Amino acid sequence: MLVQSPHTAALGVGSRPDAEQPISGRSYYVRLLDGFCLEEDGHPLAAPKAVRRLMAFVGVRGRTSRSEISGNLWPDVSETKAQACLRTTLWRLRQTAQEPIVVGDETLSLASVVTVDLSAFVTSAQRALEHVSRGPDSAQRQTVEHSMVDVGELLPGWYDDWVLFERERLRQLQLHALEAIALRLTAEGCHAQAVEAALAAVRLEPLRESAVRVLIIAHRAEHNIVEAVRCYRQFHDQLHRELGVTPTAELTRLTFGVTGL
């Protein structure tokens, strides 16, 4: 038995102090953003489809009950059949890679030898939302900011219900993080970086008023009133064209209240 990874608290994975440490010295990397990949000691593994789906599910959800895993991965069969499919997949996983999954009595989780790219994204987003100050280590802060701007899609080409749910959850996390970064950079007078972060949020969701709002705030803070008005009018026209509605009065006041344009 292997020890479970502390993967990240955000993904709901705890430790298993009663489990044994892995003994082979292997390390594993699971990529979930911009496509799935499972690597052992830096070398890609040709894993069967069921194994890839299992590793992806546990990589996203962390420690999870067997019943939840089987129900999500094999939703169209009976519970008994789904549990049998899970056992078969675990056997196939052991033929592919020996140590990435901790098998408990009722749960499965990632081992301590597994790194998941999604963990770094979640950690960066949490730091952005917790308003981590720039401090002396601006390099770390810039890393967080850039990691939010350039994020790949979660498991592109996968359309399982659980993937669609997690993809939207992570998209919302990214949007909120970008908005928080833009507002903080604006307050610090870093106008170019603030506009970049706000534009990234608008590109991700053009009809999201809160994203447009932080972009307008960034433009106004730099005294670029024309840019702010242009941004508002583009949003107004697109919103009316696609949804038949107009921006809120709050956004209108933010844009025009002081200038009277």
Automatic annotation (TrEMBL):
SUPFAM superfamilies on file:
TPR-like (SSF48452)
Which Pfam family is one of those matched by this entry?
A: BTAD
Where is the Bacterial transcriptional activator domain positioned along the sequence? 116-259
Task: Determine the domain of life of the protein's source.
Answer: Bacteria
Q: What is this protein called?
A: Bacterial transcriptional activator domain-containing protein
